[in-house]
Amino acid sequence: MCTIIVSKSHKKGELIYHKPGCFYANRIKPERKMSLAWKDLWGVNARPCRYCGGVRGELRMNTSIAGLRRQQDISIDYEKRTDAAYVRTDIGCWKICVWKKTDMYALWHRNVYDGDMSLEQAAAGAFHRQMDVKPTSSIDKLINYITAHDKAKKIIREDYRKLPQHTARQKMYYRQAERRAKRAARHRVDVLFNLIEKQDPSMKALSVC
Ligand SMILES: [Zn+2]
User: Fold this and answer.
1) 70-110: per-residue pLDDT in tens?
2) Given 27, 48, 69, which residue is the final one in a domain?
3) By residue range, what is the domain housing residue 190?
């Protein structure tokens, strides 16, 4: 986003900033508002508009999110208590919230999720910061990440070798999944040997190390 609209409120004379296209900003008389470059906002003591600002405002104003919200395989909801957006796919639940009072958004991942949870149940669980994603001003980017992440996770559950390996990031995820799969395989072999040795202690003599 490169420009914003700053308006002066009638009551307190305070400055309020809006996203372009805000319903309320459009109704303000030209003499009470001005356009400003996004980067120049820091020099102005203005608060975000209650309609178009923050996570909730982003969900209202962002047309690509409106398109996504009509899709079956993803749900995007605003939850007032936590002032956050919750993005749910069939296998994952994610939280997007404002990062340290900036105009950036950070991404959080629910530790455990099952597809039947209601929004309230999903929001009440424990989340961890998704550390490989930096806070960004673009919620679209975060949603793209979420979709790619959960799609890849589903492939890994089936067979990690089907993961795409075109970009550097994809190759990195492939290697991660490969390491994890090998670790899991080693663990299974260990468990198996322990079982065999328990049933027949003489088997232990056969092991090399
Ligand atoms: Zn506004």
Assistant:
1) 888 899 999 999 999 999 999 999 999 999 888 899 999 99
2) 48
3) 163-204
